[in-house]
Amino acid sequence: MLDRDYGRSPHPPTCTCVTCTERRNKRGRRRSVGDRMIGSGGNWSVMIGAAAVIIVIVIIILTVG
Predict the structure, then answer these.
(1) Is residue 47 within 8 Å of 55, Cβ to Cβ?
(2) Quick one: how far is CA 54 from the chain centroid?
(3) pTM for this one?
(4) Three-class SS state of 48
(5) CA 12 centroid distance within chain
(6) pLDDT tier, 10 (very low <50, low <70, confident <90, very high otherwise)
(7) Measured between alpha carbons, how far is 3 from 34 in angstroms, rounded to an integer?
């Protein structure tokens, strides 16, 4: 472990005490995929296009087979 890491805090970067864990959680809020999709307006055109392609492939397979 480098000395400069301990200069910022008395705890190592991998410390799992309550204080360090809460500080890490506040700093790096992670959002789920659903939250990111809703927040950005979603990718509906891509999802609809992919669904249309899958439906066409299934119809072709059913008519050929």
Answers:
(1) no
(2) 25
(3) 0.37
(4) helix
(5) 26
(6) confident
(7) 40
Number of alpha carbons in the 13 Å side-chain half-sphere of residue 18: 0
Span 20-40, pLDDT tens digits:
888 877 776 666 666 655 555
Measured distance CA(13)–CA(27) in Å, rounded: 14
Question: Which three-class secondary structure state does DSSP give residue 20?
Answer: helix
DSSP structure class, residue 11: S
- pLDDT band with cut points at 50, 70 and 90 for residue 57: very high
Residues counted in the chain = 65
In sequence order, the 6+-apart residues with CB closer than 8 A to the CB of 9 are 15, 20
